[in-house]
Amino acid sequence: MKRGNFESPSSSDLPSSSRFKLNPEGDSEFLEDDDNTKNFARKIKSVLIQLYTRRDDTVLDLACGKGGDLIKWEKAMIGYYVGIDIAEGSIDDCRTRYNGDADHHHRRKKYSFPARLLCGDCFEIELDKILEEDAPFDICSCQFAMHYSWTTETRARRALSNVSALLRPGGIFIGTMPDANVIIKKLREAEGLEIGNSVYWIRFGEECSQKKFNASSPFGIKYVFHLEDAVDCPEWIVPFHVFKSLAEEYDLELVLVKNFHEFVHEYMQKPEFLELMQKLGALGDGNRNQSTLSADEWEAAYLYLSFVFRKRGQSDRAGTRTAGRNNNGKMNISKDDILYINNEI
Ligand SMILES: C[S@@+](CC[C@H](N)C(=O)[O-])C[C@H]1O[C@@H](n2cnc3c(N)ncnc32)[C@H](O)[C@@H]1O
């Protein structure tokens, strides 16, 4: 039995701070006019979305939360949006946000693409029949959530088979999640079973006291994650090489995987991306009023990675444009329009 073969991350020679602000929950809108709310995780998602989405694309947002990415999809000028989340409250917030209903905290706007919202467990339920009329999608996005599927192999497989079944050939699967290599490396360097700094902590249970992980059972490795201003929640280690090979079984080929540090250096600090950054409002006005990441926030950013997969097969984007799409999409979503799906379906 092979043991403890998670790869170690390459040592990071990256600077200890950056001008972006970290909030991996990333569940609020990207407000172009408000420099002080600039947010690191949201920017990474914005860049990912902008780089891989094309005008009129149809988008499936797995674990969409409160719809924090809606404005990013609007900027990418998508043609149709389907969002699914397990949390009823979040889906309802997503609905009101989509409808442009005002609340105390946010400036609201209407979106120009039709949308559909579902509430259910997208790592348990077979979605291909449920979304038959909406599929195939050009883009599937799963931001800060794929690791919740990693409780068991069955759920991880369901997550990937849903993505694969719903994407068109050549379609793109983008996402962000914790970087298991970094977390395990930090755990091994720590004295006890806890790692962290002033902005986050991660705690493993006694079952991990050996700090060795059996390569033949890479699912269900639990830890508790605490980030400032967020609730503590259980999460699961996703060894990326297992994720990649499982994805391959479902015809999803890896295009890119990058730790957030690397992502920032490759996509967000290079002159050739300046125009994109400006378009996204990510740099503010002449770089004034920039939020700066503290060393601890920058270290917390190192806990995450972004990934891109491509569904195997000949791209038939032009063909799918004319398919009977958007039948279920609305420009204003009522409570009754939300489809609640349960595991029996
Ligand atoms: C950290 S939030 C990310 C929300 C959103 N994707 C974003 O980036 O702003 C994780 C989300 O995953 C959702 N989630 C967790 N497990 C899920 C499941 N099995 N099916 C659907 N959604 C799930 C949670 O309800 C929560 O909204």
TrEMBL record:
The UniProt keyword set, sorted, is: Methyltransferase, mRNA capping, mRNA processing, Nucleus, RNA-binding, S-adenosyl-L-methionine, Transferase
- GO MF: mRNA 5'-cap (guanine-N7-)-methyltransferase activity; RNA binding
Mark out the compositionally biased spans (Low complexity).
Answer: 8-18
One GO location term (cellular component): nucleus
According to the entry, every stretch annotated as the MRNA cap 0 methyltransferase domain falls at: 32-312
| Localization in the cell | Nucleus
Show the catalytic activity. Answer: a 5'-end (5'-triphosphoguanosine)-ribonucleoside in mRNA + S-adenosyl-L-methionine = a 5'-end (N(7)-methyl 5'-triphosphoguanosine)-ribonucleoside in mRNA + S-adenosyl-L-homocysteine
**Which CDD domains does the record match to this protein?**
AdoMet_MTases
**Where is S-adenosyl-L-methionine annotated to bind?**
45, 63, 85, 121, 143, 148
* Top EC category: transferase
Q: What PROSITE patterns does UniProt report for this protein, alphabetically?
A: RNA_CAP0_MT
The record, for Pfam families, names: mRNA_G-N7_MeTrfase
Its chief place of residence is nucleus
Question: What Enzyme Commission number(s) apply to this enzyme?
Answer: 2.1.1.56
Q: Where do the record's region annotations for Disordered lie?
A: 1-33
The Swiss-Prot or TrEMBL record describes its family as follows: Belongs to the class I-like SAM-binding methyltransferase superfamily. mRNA cap 0 methyltransferase family.
| Known function | mRNA-capping methyltransferase that methylates the N7 position of the added guanosine to the 5'-cap structure of mRNAs. Binds RNA containing 5'-terminal GpppC.
Protein name, per record:
mRNA cap guanine-N(7) methyltransferase
